[in-house]
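Appendix B. Extra example for self-study. Work through it before the problem class; the solution is given directly after the inputs so you can check yourself.
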Amino acid sequence: IAGITQAPTSQILAAGRRMTLRCTQDMRHNAMYWYRQDLGLGLRLIHYSNTAGTTGKGEVPDGYSVSRANTDDFPLTLASAVPSQTSVYFCASRATSVTDTQYFGPGTRLTVL
Amino acid sequence: GQNIDQPTEMTATEGAIVQINCTYQTSGFNGLFWYQQHAGEAPTFLSYNVLDGLEEKGRFSSFLSRSKGYSYLLLKELQMKDSASYLCAVMDSNYQLIWGAGTKLIIKP
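Solution. Structure tokens for the complete assembly:
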């Protein structure tokens, strides 16, 4: 079934630990995004990639890094997790046109203690 | 700064009509999106407006006025499954989506 998968579904992490959230899409979409969603706030863009081999910073990039080695995968890494990174993380992808809709993965619920 | 405003919560009755408003102030405008998000799930696309006017899609319609920085989502013949959060998002001059905090819609029988 075409779509976006994310792993893990949820994770509890000790502060200071390194963590990589995985995102894979099989729709051959060029653009991919990482958002975090916190209660009472809108989705906030962390990092994005317009095409394989390129990445860019969003609204809240500090403490996070990404890579885009190929079209399908877009992992998000927290180098040293802090409690303020407790959130639900969504990966999304978009086809060719910038005004195409974004399709979202099921999300990863991350708790940093 | 960039800002998207929508009501935090609304309540409506099954079978009725509800209008969810969204006002925005952004650096540039390349279209406005509405997404639906059920609790614990991912957002899913509902509509896209880039020109002024009303776009109708089944029970859902979306309206845009660019001069007023205003949009609304109209849901008709409400069903219990429409209980969800509705997210308004504007594509800015950098072609990035700026998201509102969402409107939680509660449907009562």
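Self-check: The two ends of chain B are 40 Å apart (CA to CA). If your reasoning did not lead you there, revisit section 3.
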